Please model this.
Amino acid sequence: MEYPNISLVLPIRNEERYIEACVESIFKQDYPADRMEVIFVDGCSEDRTVELLRAMQVRYPQIRILSNPDRTVPYAMNIGIRNSTTEIIVRLDVHAEYMPDYVRLSVETLLTRECENVGGVVDTRGRGFMGEAIAAMLATPLGVGNSQFRTTDEDAYVDTLAFGCFHRDLFDRIGYYDERMTRNQDNELNYRIRKNGGKVFLNHRVRSIYYCRDTIRGIMKMGFVNGKWNVITMALVPGSMSVRHFVPMVFVLSTILLVLLTVLTRSMLFGGLLALEWGAYLLLDLFYAYDIAKAKGFRFFPVEVILYPLFHFAYGTGSLVGIFTLPRMMREMAEKKE
Model:
């Protein structure tokens, strides 16, 4: 196969901890280096991210650095795509490292499969003990539901996936990244692809390592913000989010309601339902915590038992807050558009 010229586009902001390892993994790809341009779009970093990138430009002249004054990912992607000079776009993330055949397999799949977007399996990892514990949680069905790009070992057409590889003209046909989406921009774009008759394909051999948050505060903040943006995204683009994204909200809401009803009515019915719900949840919690501990060591067990409910409650609470703040968010977006 004669490999086409491609553009790798990476949004960045304050990524000095991850930038060097990410760049090294990009330039260890078995894709012809002279056919790649690597576009980093910086959202006003306040650390050494850009400084480190400029130093690496000496070794890797394919690196281009663009500025993103609006800071968020969809703005960065659109800046990168509009400034690209090739026929294929590969969207990457700096929090990740990529297997040497990642880019080649992505491009080959895009050119040979009936699809408009290609992605792969994300192996979630963490740094330090807590990072490892969080990564292990996020790699289980209880942690991420049926998110196939995190849990599958099979090729499949899917509803969404991480990152992506696209023909450049796709964005001329269906539009660019939705700049309203501070989060969930990949979900929204993949929904638009499917809505326009396209397909999203997951090649399980396309693999990357993604570094998750490595503190309890960090993962709870991520869960809260993601939960909030799930509601906002669903309101802005109905149908773009799956049922799994709202399971934590239902869990939190049902817990609150059953507690209130039990206290107010002193009914055994509501108390029994609450006990049944939490009994089932804790059984799953203990099962997956034990499964992780069996593979990684017993010291992980008590941490995992605590991590699951903390993450789920942060996520579900974020969704509930999203419902109450939705009118204000929609009004602010409308005013910004004007």
